[in-house]
Design a protein that fits this description.
single chain; mainly alpha; 77% helix
Length: 277
């Protein structure tokens, strides 16, 4: 009989048939008690979980803020030329996985600032930061693979890291990626693809990319030869401090009419104004 009742507890519409009303009342009361106790236990568990989460968050953000302060102290020291102090600040948080500190250690080893110059050490720290998505580290890493600094020269690796940084909007990486396509390093030479990356870099204020756009238009590489556009880009490059841009602009003017030069100058001024450069 007990066995039968136990089996029927899970059957629909059998509850009232098997049990008398008095027993139903007792079961209902017992069920309510269980529900209440279960609810209390769930509330306590929720409170404990919330407390643990808040405590963890407090420790995490507290440590993050501390690391940010130490990182800033390192930057301030480096700006003053006190590289020994900068290294002292960067190293512990770099070991903890702080990508900005890892990148800056890479720079210090690459340039021999406060440490003995070592491309291998620079490569190590750049790689750690690059794997965490640091675009500057990715760009510098690409440059080291392109030049074979601290590692064997590898254009495919260079392209890989330039691409990652360039797609994050890193102007130098976009310029270098354009150069790879322009020269055909690790890829088939492609002036149009080079122009695409140069234009993106130009918007980021990279004067070397602006200069190279001028070269493409002056020589008709990947585009129709156009002295007005070439002059415009040499002028923009020169306005951003590129001496080669100014020299090329002046040389090109010997092949242009006064009207063409005037038009090119207007185009350059308009572009610089629209891009706040």
């Amino acid at each position: 009989m007990i066995k039968k009742e136990a089996n029927l507890l899970f059957c629909e519409n059998s509850f009232e048939i098997i049990f008398p009303k008095s027993r139903i009342r007792k079961i209902a009361i017992f069920t309510k008690v269980l529900d209440k106790n279960e609810k209390t236990m769930r509330q306590k568990l929720l409170l404990k979980t919330t407390a643990l989460f808040l405590a963890s968050a407090f420790l995490f953000f507290g440590a993050t803020n501390l690391s940010a302060d130490v990182f800033q102290e390192g930057l301030d020291a480096a700006e003053k030329g006190d590289y020994a102090v900068a290294f002292e600040k960067f190293k512990p948080i770099a070991d903890q996985g702080w990508p900005g500190a890892q990148f800056n250690l890479g720079v210090m080893y690459a340039k021999g600032q406060g440490v003995q110059k070592s491309y291998k050490e620079a490569l190590k720290w750049y790689l750690l930061a690059a794997k965490q998505g640091n675009a500057s580290a990715q760009s510098n890493l690409g440059n080291m693979y392109e030049k074979g600094q601290g590692t064997a020269q590898d254009y495919n690796e260079a392209l890989k890291w330039y691409n990652l940084a360039a797609n994050q909007g890193h102007g130098m990486a976009q310029t270098n990626l354009g150069n790879m396509y322009y020269s055909g390093k690790g890829v088939e030479q492609d002036y149009k693809e080079a122009l695409k990356w140069y234009l993106l870099a130009a918007e980021n204020g990279r004067s070397k990319a602006q200069f190279k756009i001028g070269v493409l238009y002056a020589q008709g590489e990947g585009v129709s030869q156009d002295y007005i556009k070439a002059h415009k880009w040499f002028n923009i490059s020169g306005a951003n401090g590129n001496e080669l841009g100014r020299n090329k602009r002046n040389s090109l003017e010997k092949l242009m009419t006064a009207r063409q030069i005037s038009k090119a100058q207007k185009l350059a001024r308009k572009w610089l104004s629209e891009h706040n450069q």
